[in-house]
Amino acid sequence: MSGIKTMRDAMIARILDLMATDERLFFLSADMGAPLLDTLRESYPKRFINVGIAEQNLINVAAGLAMEGCCVYTLAIAPFYLRAFEQIRNNLSIAARFNPLNVNMMGIGGGVSYDISGPSHHALEDLATLRSLPDVAVISPADWLAASQLPDFAQTAPYPKYIRLDGKGHEPVTTQPMVWRQGFQTLQQGARAALLTTGFMTQKGQKLVAELGEADIGHIDLFQFTRDLDEQALAQTLRGYGRLVTLHEGYLGRGGLDTLIDTLCRQHGLSMPVTHLGFPLAHQFLFAPREHLHAACGMGIEDVKTALLA
Amino acid sequence: MELSAKAIWVREQTLLLHQYAPGTRVASSLSPVEFLVSLYYGGYLRHRPQEPRWAGRDRLIMSKGHGLVSLYPILADCGYFPMEELPKIATQQSYLGVIPDAGIPGVETTNGALGHGLGVGAGMAIALKAQGSQARVCVVCGDGEMNEGSVWEAIMFAPKHGLNNLMLVIDDNKISMLGFQREILNLSPFVDKLSAFGWDCHRLDGHDMAQVQTRMQQLWLNPGQRPCAVVLDTVKGKGVAALENRALSHVLSLSHDQVETAIQELRP
């Protein structure tokens, strides 16, 4: 399984398969398209709904469908879900206390996928913001192969999920099957330091860890941020490393991957040095390719290598 | 008991709930009473109180959540929970809060934050149609709630999808929290606006039981091709002189004695 694909297309391809046999499956879009979505909406015109450019109604309609037992996918640009935060909070998170609500929010363009579109399209708050909700799972796959396995997992997980998908196509980082209820995977063993990444940063991390060769650097991809992360197992895995470096496309110290690891270390008595790399708390107006944006914010390839070898 | 007498009983019970829990929004809860009585006792809502989540039930979403405490006595009277539950409202011994939530038998959703009910109701209506269900969805909003943009996203959505199993009820009691709506955003006339958006919309005297019954007979039992809306011309705090037409009635609490006086006023 190789080749370049987007996470979005890989997910939609599998959803399309499942819609053939599962009549309770609906796909809602906030006027966002994709080539495969054309096939989907032509094949299932009654179960594909374009709600228009209306993210609040996207979530509300999805919630209503799910309350009647439907499994629902929603498609919108990642940061635009924040417009519907109250709808997610009230009609998915609170409502999930009383109903099994299988709503799968596909957020396209996690982090700075839309690098040259500027801050309105950057999703640097989504992980932290949605992680704050008690009954919403937050999932951040690293590659399209993982994304392609998500719909089958979603069928077995009847609760609201925010799924952060990268906007760019890429090669898969691994062919090992996803263990969704573990929430993390070790891509490279090591002892000196561990690089912890999520989403597209896992792809970047894999390349730079390979470049470090014999430096004994481990690499862990974290793809579940809330209910399905096995924190005990993650703490046990991290215990063997001399230092930790986290790298994610989100603001530092505001509830993202770095905060998750800090809390985990404190709760499980891990005391190795930890360095966090991510965006400073500032909207980014540098209209440049992604790596330039990273380098300008202290999270370029060389910054990560330096932190790992410290 | 005839429906008008039932409406008086519901108002009495709503006032007593306010006496037990002064944090309840009593004025807002008194305006939609005739509609609720018609829905539950007039032969319209299909439901099974002993089986609250019966698949064939009609769904009522109380989008103006805090303004529908008057539903509690109706739910108890219908048998969703014992009448003895009412005096325990807003205590550790009760599941009844001053805003209804979906943990209460007979309550579908948790509202209170405004502007959520209609979109959720539209989603339910689509699912019910897809499943071949005859069940209908009714969403009760306040006129102040119509200020929320998310309501209008759903208003645009429902006619496009032919949701003739969806009814929007606007309790037009003309006062939101800080005063009269005509001085805040003045969305009147609702009928013209909703009609322009493709709804089958009607205005009626929300306190005239005969009018409410006639309109429900037409719209609930014989739906057309479009989603329908009923604008109830109501009085906030209806039946209580200390509340009616008071700009800040939404946040007013009545004293124990005021409740006693108000109950005496209600009785014919």
TrEMBL record, chain A:
Gene3D superfamilies: 3.40.50.920, 3.40.50.970
Domain Transketolase-like pyrimidine-binding: 5-173
Alphabetical list of CDD domains matching this protein: TPP_PYR_DXS_TK_like
Record Pfam families: Transket_pyr, Transketolase_C
Annotated InterPro entries: PDH/Transketolase, THDP-binding, Transketo_C/PFOR_II, Transketolase-like_Pyr-bd, Transketolase_C
Protein's recorded name: Transketolase, central region
Automatic annotation (TrEMBL), chain B:
Enzyme's top EC category: transferase
InterPro entries cross-referenced by the UniProt entry: THDP-binding, Transketolase_N
Transmembrane segments: none
Transketolase N-terminal domain: residues covered: 42-263
Keyword flag Transferase: yes
Molecular function GO labels: transketolase activity
EC code: 2.2.1.1
Protein's name in the database: Transketolase subunit A
Taxonomic path: Bacteria, Pseudomonadati, Pseudomonadota, Magnetococcia, Magnetococcales
